[in-house]
Amino acid sequence: MRLKGRTAIVTGAGHGIGRAIALRLGAEEAAVAIADIDGSAAERVAEELRTTGARAVAVEVDIADVAAIVAAIHAAQNALGPPTILINNAGILAMRPALKLNASAWDSALAINLSAAFHAAQAILPLMTAAGWGRIVNISSMMAVTAFGEDAVYCSTKAGLLGLTRSLAAEFGPYNVCVNAVCPGNVTTRLMADAAASIERRDGLEPGSFMHKRAQAIPLRRLGLPGDVAAVVAFLCSSDADYVTGQAIHVNGGLFYG
Description:
Strand order of the largest sheet: 3-2-1-4-5-6-7
Number of helices: 8
Distance between the termini: 31 Å
Number of strands: 7
CATH superfamily of the largest domain: NAD(P)-binding Rossmann-like Domain
Helix content: 40-55%
CATH topology of the largest domain: Rossmann fold
Number of domains: 2
Radius of gyration: 18 Å
Order of helices and strands: EHEHEHEHEHEHHHE
């Protein structure tokens, strides 16, 4: 119950890691706005939370649209009270060979994976500074500091999130706003399954082999679960992390040391 009385908004919360984060924050007694481009999925997660007694609302939003981001935050505020926790989780994979990566694909990934996080923070920070307390957690990736190839735009946007994290932490620390990043490794989500399939096609590997070999390469000998990431996010949002800001925390079972 570390977040009792707080209101959080989680982007991309209709599935995967975002859903796990929303459920964990609700379990910590935060009121949670489920923001997702898939309105039906967002409503299912919100209802899942409400059945546990948590306060939750679904907000359909295309985070590539700046005006829609601002409207989503207003909707969350009207339904649940001023949000002082922002989890920038929504993102797309965007794996393409560099020489086939056109300007449109680059701009789309940049808008969704990086620019949206900035615009959401820009819209919500006045509420945090007014409250004298806030938490922003940007869901980056292990790919911010390593690469498989054919992932130039994904790696660039996830690395950009680390720069954004550090800058906002420095600027808003005096207002008691902590800004951190979490960098998941190989977590069992639809996005990871898509990445694995893309690598298998590119390298001529048997379907399903990448995930199996990856698990064996991880010191803990398993792929990550969305709940593994959610637990770290919940810690960063709590008073237990009052002196933690500007950090990038890797959650990858020991596969990579950032």
